[in-house]
Amino acid sequence: MPVPIARMGRGLFVLFAVALIAAPAPGRADPSGVTWDAKIEVASGGGYRGPWRMNESAFNYVDDPTVAIDEQGFVGVAWADQSRQDIFFQVYEPDGKKRLGEPVNVSGSPRIFSWLPRMVIASGDAGGVYILWQEIVFSGGSHGGEIFFARSTDGGKTFGDPINLSNSIAGDGKGRITPRYWHNGSLDLAMGPQGDLYAAWTEYEGNLWFSRSTDRGDNFSDPLRVAGGRDAEPARGPSLAVDAEGAVYLAWTVGEDRAADIRFAKSVDHGRTFGKPRIVFESGGHSDAPKIAVNGKGTVHLVYAESPAGPFERYNIWYTRLNEGERTFEEPREISSPQTEQFESVSFPALSLDSEDNIYVIWELFPSRGNYPRGLGLTYSSDGGRTFASPSVIPGSVDPALGVNGSQQGLLMRKLAVNGAGAVAVVNSTFKRNRTSRIWLFRGLAAGR
User: Fold this and answer.
1) Are 263 and 278 in contact (CB under 8 A)?
2) Range of 73's domain?
3) Cα separation of 127 and 386, whole Å?
């Protein structure tokens, strides 16, 4: 059964009482320079998760949110409703009002669990919404999982029939750490400047796959294996980015290695082929959950979690960049300290840029390494990554009354989106066992924007 990294090998989940952290009220800038609006409740559900019985499991909660934002400030949110076993979508106006009367069912497979979506909203095309997710189809292998895609051409009011991109029995969408422990949601989706779509995912068996569409999702290429193989460590946690010229960048880590390092590969032919993968930096620690982004000048920004003591121990968030024209990344720097004493570890970052090359990074906050995270941390760079602000807590993301962050099927997610104008959108889920679950949207604006 897949479980979040924060509780692997640590026994049963134990609730920890965590005091609320002092944070600015909505409408005021926090230390990262973001001014936050009041948070929005997107969806709610029960708080029950029964024993794993494949697609017959009794699950009653909402979880797995992801977010995207267009240049006009419209925010799309997609999430999983486990009681209905489907992916749902809602869109919010720039003033925070819901655009759709009711959430739209994207996956349409109520007898099969659908988990951990990724989403793109096309810039300059308010009608184009593209969603990728993991569907727990048991195709004959040892683990269930296929990668599905659906698109909307009317702003999310309706979605076309889902397409199975993987069509394998290898347990697609799983990012393995050891034979017993993995995360679901090991997948990503990105769009290029000409509207080409790029999807990447890993499988339990270890391969990293890539597929592209040159017709905005009508068709996808046969999957291309970028990494993995019979004698290779299993790939895990892919992240995609595309530059203004259409070059595709792909980062990931590996399992079965206590000193895992982040891998990186680039395609200069719009995803037809990739160069030989290379290691970003050999640290000796366990590097996990990378996120990658590229600015308009071609500088590649990368964040990831690093634990000097190996998997399942105390992590921090590290940052590095590859400047245009250079061949190697800068030496990584830790950007998540100092943390408040109420958090023992931070991990699973998300990364986004605005048009002025301001960098936004968020991450999961762990009061204890052996349990689920509570709330989200944030830092910000206003000088292209040379320096970062002191970390802060996103206001309203830590609330003991709401329980812990959700992420019941794994923490490989994309919870952050920023548009060119510096409008920030963050999503999170909360889960209070046997009580309630909720999906939240946090909207803000960067200082000076």
Assistant:
1) yes
2) 5-446
3) 37
